[in-house]
Design the sequence.
């Protein structure tokens, strides 16, 4: 990559026009154009201002790799960190749901605690797990680029209808409305698992 091509990439990355660059560097637009087409090279006293304008070192400007490659190297760790955070959030919430169920069994069968105390602790654990799940769904999922139309939209419609039928059927048959809301937590977990499997398959196909 020539110096001119690199200067063009840098300007495009910063969304600047040749006129704006010329104004910031106290040169003419024609001078900037000649730099980018390799008709001429920047004077030595312009190297530092150019580097300061684009936030790079003089070594990166004169000897470094292309801007696209540098951006790919910078984005890779961010994407890996994002995936790790999502994985931690999902596994933590699922683990807490299991802990909540185990707590109810122990509270009733082993500890023989009062229903009010055991249910309160159960609700607290489920509440924390749900908050983690919602956080990863709203914050972490929005941190990456989301397609305009969800490719799993039809799946969510079918899944939502199925769980609605299950919820009302179980609730009316058992009349345990105080506990059947857990079906919606299961729905959220199943939905996220389907999304993860779908994303993993897409990555393998690429």
Sequence:
């Amino acid at each position: 990559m020539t110096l001119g091509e690199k200067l063009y990439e840098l300007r495009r990355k910063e969304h600047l026009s040749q006129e704006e660059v010329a104004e910031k560097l106290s040169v003419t637009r024609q001078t900037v154009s000649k730099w980018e087409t390799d008709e001429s090279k920047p004077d030595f006293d312009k190297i530092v201002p150019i580097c300061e304008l684009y936030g790079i070192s003089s070594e990166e400007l004169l000897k470094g790799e292309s801007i696209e490659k540098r951006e790919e190297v910078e984005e890779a760790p961010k994407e890996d960190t994002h995936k790790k955070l999502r994985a931690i959030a999902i596994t933590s919430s699922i683990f807490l749901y299991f802990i909540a169920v185990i707590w109810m069994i122990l509270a009733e069968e082993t500890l023989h605690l009062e229903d009010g105390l055991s249910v309160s602790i159960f609700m607290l654990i489920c509440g924390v797990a749900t908050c983690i799940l919602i956080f990863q769904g709203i914050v972490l999922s929005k941190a990456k680029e989301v397609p305009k139309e969800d490719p799993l939209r039809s799946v969510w419609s079918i899944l939502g209808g199925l769980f609605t039928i299950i919820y009302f059927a179980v609730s009316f048959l058992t009349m345990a409305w105080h506990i059947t809301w857990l079906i919606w937590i299961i729905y959220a977990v199943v939905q996220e698992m389907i999304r993860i499997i779908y994303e993993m398959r897409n990555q393998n196909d690429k």
